Amino acid sequence: MAENGKQALYETSKSTFDLILMDIMMPEMDGFEASKKIRKPEEEKDQCLAAGMDSFIEKPLTKKKLTMQLEQLNIKVSAS
Q1: Where in the chain are the domains?
Q2: How far is it, in rounded angstroms, from Cα 24 to Cα 26?
Q3: What's the rounded Cα separation, in Å, for the pair 79 and 38?
Q4: Could you report the per-residue pLDDT of 5-26, keeping only the tens digit for each?
Q5: Residue among 32, 28, 35 nearest 6 (CA)
Q6: What's the pLDDT score for residue 58?
Q7: Given phi > 0 = left and psi -120 to 50 = alpha, else beta, which region is 28?
Q8: What DSSP line would sit under 13-74, residue for residue?
């Protein structure tokens, strides 16, 4: 549960959610702006894939995210 749009944006950056119910009339950042910002990585991903890229990793880049993505692409990385 978020008290405002900024907090909703922060919460979605920490975890993934199957469903978000958005109040459009929130203080600090309304639901429209929060929704646009929440969806921004998806738009970026779609643009990358449409441009012919094999995959997309959103920032911040972590070793875990990179490892998972490489495994999904069946790319083996040496331990050096």
Answers
A1: 5-72
A2: 6
A3: 35
A4: 999 999 988 888 899 999 999 9
A5: 28
A6: 82
A7: left
A8: HHS--S-----SS-SSS-HHHHHHHHHHHHHHHHHHHHTT-S---PSSP-HHHHHHHHHHTT
